[in-house]
Protein 1
Amino acid sequence: MRHDHLISARQLSRADIESVLDHAATFDGDVTGGGRREDVLGLLFFEPSTRTKMSFDTAMKRLGGSTVDMGTVESSSVKKGESLADTVRVVAGYADALVLRHPSEGAAKLASEFVDVPVINAGDGAGQHPTQTLLDLYTIRESAGLDDLSIGVMGDLKYGRTVHSLAEALTNFDVTQHFVSPESLRLPRSVRYDLHESGAEVREHTELDGVLPELDVLYVTRIQRERFPDENEYRQIAGEYRIDAATLDVARDDLSVMHPLPRVDEIAPDVDETRHATYFEQAHNGVPVRMALLDIMLGGEGR
């Protein structure tokens, strides 16, 4: 990879993506990671996280390295008013790379300007989540390949950083992207512009029914309750963007249903028992993909 930092999916070429995914395949199922390294990874999570934080921690340790964790905002010097710039400069003195999640869009880019170690964006507000995209692409590749596909993305497309990153990364491949959302939560204009400029084949829909039978992948995201000032409006919209096993009766036999998790009620539990459910495997893939990414960025075999 050509970058010292990973801030946005826009940085990733097809060759970059395939390099990480190919390297991840060598780690998939390898408990030890095949070696020892002395690198230390700094974890700075200004927002709650389960899968991203734990998989980065696991990935570094399986590579033979170690992690240092800032802990919660409430238990850190951030609570005392320490700036992001000062926090990352301090932790960079303890670690060989930093993983940062922050509620403000652009925070990872800002942090990268103050340190000399790689910064990996683990989610910046409604901006980007490029490492989630890499594990999403790995999951898609394992089930369907990465070309000649119809991929549907449903839910909160306006604020969903996983959606923004995935949409941009998919422009490297031969896919048709279908975006399903209420009008109020459609893709931001800036993302739609970037997709148009890249020549991506994009379709927008307000209902899933008409497009579901032609999809190879359905990527479901949570309708974010906290974005709605009116609880009734949220309930009405959320109820319309929910799938259950019966919904999938018209889907292709090999449709993969994905979700970045956590889910609330947008995927009914009965979908878990269908052949379509891929989201727990998707979460598992966070470890080998992040192992590969760290190994490459820290100068391992994939460099």
Protein 2
Amino acid sequence: MALGRFPGLAEAEQLRQRLLALDIESRLQTRDVVMGVDYWLVMPVVGGERHAVIQLSALQEQGIDSFLITRGEMAGSLSLGVFAREDYAQVRQEQLQYLGHDVRLHALNKKEQQYVVEVGSKARRLVDQAMLTRLRADFPGLQHQYQPCAGVANTGRIP
């Protein structure tokens, strides 16, 4: 059973400590949760950083907001904006393409780290509806989700 979805570590740890005080074994888990999507307009540049800087200067002279991407898989390309809505990004992409620029649209997942407290299958029977009700009094919005048990067959033991 997974309890939580806490945005901060402190509250998840407080719940885990409460369960330990009740003699319920649990462990803290961190999960990356996709909270939405942003749309990034990127112009690839062939020829390395020197050509990218020349292209960047040309764009800025035209009054086009842009900057050089220096890290990650897009390093060496030019960023032409990040948009919360895909339709806005597409309109801007079309405007830039009309001006003769090769601009590509990339979807970026916005992720947030959240914390859950997992109660193992042996201790699961101790967390009944009455206990969940009491825990929700101290942890408003507490969610619970039943997890499937770990596989019985272990691939290391299968001949």
